[in-house]
Amino acid sequence: MIKDNLEKVRGNIFHACERAGRKAEDVTLIAVSKTKPLEDLREAYEAGARDFGENKVQELVDKIPEMPTDVRWHMIGHLQRNKVKYIVDKVYMIHGVDSLRLAEEISKEAVKHEVVVRILMEVNVAEEESKFGITVADAPKLAEEIAKLPGVSLQGLMTIAPYVENPEENREIFAKLRQLAVDISRKNIDNISMNVLSMGMTGDYQVAIEEGATCVRVGTGIFGERNYQI
Ligand SMILES: *Cc1c(COP(=O)(O)O)cnc(C)c1O
After folding, report:
1. CA angle, 197 as apex, 194 and 198 as ends, to 5°?
2. Is the CB of residue 169 less than 8 Å from the CB of residue 163?
3. Which residue minimizes the CA distance to atom 10 of ligand 1?
4. What's the mean pLDDT when you consider all of the chain?
5. Looking at the domain 2-223, which fold is it?
6. Is the pLDDT of residue 230 over 60?
7. CB–CB of 76/102 below 8 Å?
8. Across residues 37-46, what is the average pLDDT?
9. SS3 assignment, position 132
10. Which pLDDT score, from 0 to 100, does residue 229 have?
11. Which atom of ligand 1 is nearest to the CA of 220?
C-alpha cells in the first residue's frame, strides 16, 4: 500500500512538474513519517524513499539508528534550542529555523561537532497566529544575520501553508514564498543560497510545485492517516 501510494505521489509530482515546465528530479519528495512505525518507514525505503521527515527530536533519534545510513533525515518540526545538540550531526537539513537565537544554537553545536548543517528559514507567510515562523518582512534581516554564523548553511525557505479545502487557496502563499526567495537572492548575501523552497504537503503539494517548490513534505499521502492515540 505504501509502495502504491509512493508511486501515485511520484506520478503527481511528475505531472505537476510537466505543467510548470520543470524537471521532476528538481523536486525532492520528503516522506513525512512522524508517528509511523519503523516497518512503514522500511516499506517506503524499499520502494525507493531516501528522504524522511520527522517533527519530534526524540522520535528522530530513536528512528535514525534503526534505518539504513543513506537515509537523509529532515527535521521539519519546531525545534527547541536545548534539543539541538541531539540532532545537529545526524540530520541532513533543519527546516524550521525561525529565530536568530535558534540559528546561533545550531551554529554553536555544529562547530562543536565539526559539521556544517543545512538549514531553512521558516516563514509564516499567512501570518497565522497558531504557527511558528518569521514574517516576510523580517526574513531578509534574519538571512543576513544567519549568513555570519559558522557551521550553518542557509539554503532557502520553508513554509507551512494554512489548512484549506481547496489547494488553489494556497497558491498565493507559495508564490509569495518564492518571491521572497528571489528578493533575498538579489541582495547577494555571502555564504547563503535561496535554492531550496520547502513547501506543500499532502493537500497542496501539486500547487506548491507549480509555484516553485523544490521540496515537498508528504505524510498522509504516503503513509495514510496518522493516529495520535498510539
Ligand atoms: C506533518 C507535517 C507534514 C505532512 O503533512 P501531511 O498533510 O500528512 O502530508 C508536512 N510538513 C510538516 C511541517 C508537518 O509537520
Report:
1. 140
2. no
3. 217
4. 97
5. TIM Barrel (3.20.20)
6. no
7. no
8. 98
9. coil
10. 61
11. 8
The type of residue at 113 is H
If one residue of 76, 98, 201 were mutated to test the ligand 1 pocket, choosing by the most ligand atoms within 8 A of its CB, it would be: 201
The SS3 assignment for 191 reads coil
> How many whole angstroms from 27 Cα to the centroid of ligand 1?
16
C-alpha cell at 211: 509555484
Over the stretch 166-203, which tens digit does the pLDDT of each residue have?
999 999 999 999 999 999 999 999 999 999 999 999 99
User: CB of 151 within 8 A of CB of 187?
Assistant: no
pLDDT at 57 over 60: yes
Nearest Cα neighbor of 97 from 153, 52, 48, 59 is: 153
Q: Which residues line ligand 1 (CB under 6 A)?
A: 32, 34, 55, 76-77, 160, 201-203, 217-221
- Helix or strand run (H / E) with residue 38: helix 38-46
- Find out whether 155 and 196 touch, Cβ atoms under 8 Å: yes
Tally the residues of the chain.
230
Domain limits of the chain? Answer: 2-223
